[in-house]
Amino acid sequence: MNKKKIVENTAKLIFFISAALAIFAVCAITVYMFIKGTPALKEVGVFNLLLDGKWMPTAQNPSYGIFYIILASVVGTLSSVVIGVPIGLLTAVFLSEIAEKRMGSIVRGAVELLAAIPSVIYGLIGMMVLNPWMYKLEKAIFSGDSDHRFTGGANLLAAIIVLAIMILPTVISVSTSSLKAVPDHLRSASLALGATKIQTIFKVVIPAAKSGILTGIVLGIGRALGEAMAINMVAGGAVNIPLPFNSVRTLTTQIVSEMGYAQGLHRQVLFTVGLVLYIFIMIVNFILLKARKKGETAG
Amino acid sequence: MSKKRKRNSILAYGAIYLCSALSVVLLAGIILYVFVKGLGTVNWSFLTSVTSVLRGTVGIAGNIVNTLIIIFLTMLIATPIGVGSAIYLNEYAKPGRLVTLIEYATETLSGIPSIIFGLFGSIFFGEVLGLGFSLLTGSLTLILMVLPLITRNTQEALKTVPMTYRSGAIGLGSGKWHMIRTILIPSAMPGIITGVILAIGRIVGESAALLFTAGSAKLLPKTMGQLLAKPLQSGGTLTIQMYLSATSEGDFKTAFGIAVVLLIIVLLINLGTKALTKHFDVSRKD
Predict the structure, then answer these.
(1) Eight-state DSSP code of residue A240
(2) Is the residue at B11 inside a domain?
(3) In this predicted structure, which of A9-13, A282-286, B108-112, B220-224 has the lowest mean pLDDT?
């Protein structure tokens, strides 16, 4: 009998440790991001680091301003959301309100597969297809402009397009399930009052699914902020003001492309870049948790 | 008014159909493009040899072996922990502060981008624990990343196991651990396997978390001893090699060849999970 009790307690303890590992992992990641990310803030100065745009880490008189890098991440993420969300939402409307079984399963299957394609493949195709198009566009727009530094098509616009495509599956799947969760009697009531199907969708169903759709948007923001490899391959390799036809570095691509060789203070600054990204992501996560909690108490 | 309404309606339908078609067209375009560009590269020697300037061969065998080792090591550790965590949350824990905290932590973990995992892994496993650039460092990093996936899928599966199974087993005199081992885990197996397959898919496609943890070596172990020593050495997976081929090495033939292999793996994994959920999960409404 006693032996059985020992076995039971051991099992329980092991399961508990497994579960607690997640807490331990989050704490460890947070602690190490701060330990590694803060020294450069002291060394370079908060203002010089975060609010200066001059990035010349290997110059004689090095300068470590990451303002444009932060700005490129913010601009890139928000623009990709502005493009991706309407497309994703309309696709979700199709899947939940309009599609009959066969068409629906084709689109749904395609969306699932798009989510599963590795980001390096998006990057590769972006490099081979998107960048040449961008270069043509660039040549056409800036043909007489001697101030413009030509990028060969690797620019912010290409990154935004790739990101918009990459967040589509997230936006679509979250929005579809929240649209599906809208009770049918709302639709029937609206139709019975003489509204068309389209009016019902846009004036009744989408507003009713608002909080779920917002969750999808926030998830999309998180995904776009954190994406590294694909945009590293299409966005070019220079720190610049985030304008559509400039080569840009974002928080993620800055780490990917320079961590391999950076030394000393340069390396420490890259950890600060990581810390800034981590703080952004934690804010996004916090908003998500709040939204989920609100959704639970409301539903 | 009515005419305007009709026009708006047509416009709205047009936009909806156009956007929905976009996903299908994009997917078809990506698959077609990659296969047209890369299928010519993929042959037996591409899959079974190692790129060597001396012998004039181009191949990804080393990267395939590295990928398999990383999958094996990661899942070997992540599966029991993920399943154990789900069992604790679902079967033992009483609702309260601690459970909420664990669930928050799992949720947070799944929202952290892979580049952050890569940074943390290279500092903690690579520097602090002294494992350097190695397949083991990469695997330990990936464990944290796939843990939420396995936990969540197992939890979903445990929730569908009827309460009567549990009370039946306990009523017959079984201890809780015995009940979990003989009743719950077998019943939840399809969910667990789905989680494992999804996690493998995630590992195969992962690159940012591995670049600074597992490194990029591509040698093929020749003896059993070399294979056993491999986890402590640096090694690039298929995605890492593809990234390097497309960027610093400028070898697009190899890049597209690997892309074909990756796409085939992704397609197989997708079909596999679909078949599994269809076969086992009768309760799912979707």
Answers:
(1) -
(2) no
(3) B220-224
CB B237 within 8 A of CB B66: yes
Residue A293 has what pLDDT?
A: 76
Q: Is the CB of A11 less than 8 angstroms away from the CB of B82?
A: no
Query: Does residue B16 lie in a domain region?
Result: no
Partner residue opposite B124 with nearest CB, options A28, A95, A110: A28
Alpha helix (H) residue ranges in A94-150: 101-116, 119-125, 131-141
Domain count, chain B: 1
pLDDT at A299: 43
Q: Which of A124, A130, A234 to mutate to test the interface with B (most CBs of B within 10 A)?
A: A124
Listed in sequence order, the residues at least 6 apart from A291 whose beta carbon sits closer than 8 Å to its beta carbon are A211, A214, A215, A218
Nearest residue on chain B to A271, judged by CA atoms?
B119
CB of A94 within 8 Å of a chain B CB? The answer is yes
The C-alpha atoms of residue B56 and residue B88 are separated, in whole angstroms, by 54
Residue of chain B whose alpha carbon sits nearest to that of A225 = B113
Thinking of the domain A66-298, which architecture would CATH place it in?
Orthogonal Bundle (1.10)
CB contact under 8 A, B116 and A94: no
Q: Where are the domains of chain A?
A: 66-298
Q: How far apart, in whole angstroms, are the C-alpha atoms of residue A181 and residue A169?
A: 18
Structure confidence by residue, pLDDT tens digits, B212-262? 999 888 878 878 888 888 888 888 999 999 999 999 888 999 999 999 999
Tell me the residues of chain A between 235 and 264 that have a Cβ less than 8 Å away from chain B: 252, 255-256, 259-260
Give residue A296's pLDDT: 65
Output the pLDDT for position B284: 45
User: Is A198's Cβ below 8 Å from some Cβ in B?
Assistant: yes
- Name every residue whose Cβ is closer than 8 Å to that of residue A128 and which is 6 or more positions away in sequence: B33, B37, B252
pTM: 0.92
In a domain, B169, yes or no: yes
pLDDT digits (tens, 9 = 90+) for A40-57: 999 888 888 898 888 988
Give domain status of residue B109, yes or no.
Answer: yes
Q: Is A277 on the interface with B (CB under 8 A)?
A: yes
CB-CB neighbors (< 8 A) of A178 in chain B: none
Q: Under an 8 A CB cutoff, do A277 and B115 touch?
A: yes
The residue-averaged pLDDT of B188-199 equals 91
